[in-house]
Amino acid sequence: MGNAFGYLHWLKSNNQAFAPDRTEDFVEKNIGFPCRVVTGNKAVQSVFDIDLFKKEEFYFGQIEVRKDFTEGVCPSITSNGKIHERNKALMMDIIAEAYKEIPTSTANAVLSNIARWGRRPTKFESKLFAVSAGALLPTIFGKSTHFNAEEIELYITGSTELRPECLAALSEGNELVEGRPAIAYILEKMKTSERYHQLIDLGKSHGFGEAETTGQLLFTIMFNGVAGMAVNLVPSFARLDTISAEDREELRKEALAALKKHGGLTREALAEMPKIESFVLEVLRACPAPDFWSTIATRPTTVKYSTESGPQEVEIKEGERVYASSYWALRDPAVFNKPDNFMWRRFLGPEGKARREHHVTFHGRLIDTPAANNHMCPGKDVGLSVIKGSIAVLNTFFGWELEEPPVWTGTKAARLGQPDNEVNINSFWLQHPNDLKAVFPSYFDDIIDVSCQF
């Protein structure tokens, strides 16, 4: 199969292009380039070994990160070795500071955006993107710097392109033209933010100059941070529409009790929402984004794993591309009962806690702690907090009607774990005004005023 045909086949079928039969976890595929696709849970976890597998610099599988969108700096997420450790250590320090403010910032982002939505918010997925940006960016750059979410979306759109092997299948679009002006806008906002000089000084403490620090911030915060959280926030919101009214009320009662007890969205309140957390973790299992990781074998190795037919092993050649499917690893029946069913209580209780070692997300096992010498996302806890907090606030105080029921087939490559069709809303309303006034009184008047206008 040629590269162009392989890419087109993958583009049409996405995850279904390499649906496993569970008798062999490693299969040869062409998805725009030849690679070995890994689908079993244990086998996928073996790809996390940084001594055996490395990232391909500036590449995510079939797409390439444009160097002119990162100031020429290789993003932390696609770097390796000592430079990766330095990049990761810097981002971990930045994220650690942000994490302290995330709950309050998340509540503010959700409620201040809702105050402008009205009864029928159009382009709803972009509105959730704005929530993601509003939750994260003030904790990095300070509250006085206001970024335009539309400019960030343009930057994200233009920041990647198809790798050369796949360009024969599709013609290059106009993303680059659209995205370039957004770079200047974002850089100007970053460099005039109240915390920019603090961030540059922090970069210097890790041995980076201003350009290197700015380049890491530009891509890691905007692409991996803002866009990454938004991509997972959309399906989390949509999945609420797939569970019963009784289940949604159960989630609402848990969140409301925690919010009232702690006087708002705090880290302590989030810790007392195990049902909300289990719901979000099940979303990340059922429709993961990203749904794959692409790596290259650093040396010949033998990977051992287990399947229903017994112990297996596979020989990996040095330089071989290994494409690990989190989508199928999270549907492995050897570790997840009824994997095709959305079961939001799956991660509750002792058994649910034990299952988390099989939950592969954020480029690692859920139970892994981000460290300089692994590839677990440094913003794992921040991302989970933003998604959990946003869903808690939305489900606790508001009601909505979607234009159509959300459906996931695993065939839509461009949707990245989101429902096959764009999530749009017929109507949105404040459903529990007294509860909102009791927990978030400072937002009540603005939201009730907007609600009454429609």
UniProtKB/TrEMBL annotation:
Q: Which InterPro entries match?
A: Cyt_P450, Cyt_P450_sf
Q: Which Gene3D superfamilies match?
A: Cytochrome P450
Obligatory cofactor(s): heme
Q: Name one GO molecular function term.
A: monooxygenase activity
Q: Which UniProt keywords apply?
A: Iron, Metal-binding, Oxidoreductase
Keyword match Iron? yes
> What is the similarity comment for this entry?
Belongs to the cytochrome P450 family.
Name the UniProt record assigns to this protein: Allene oxide synthase 1, chloroplastic-like
Gene designation: LOC118432174
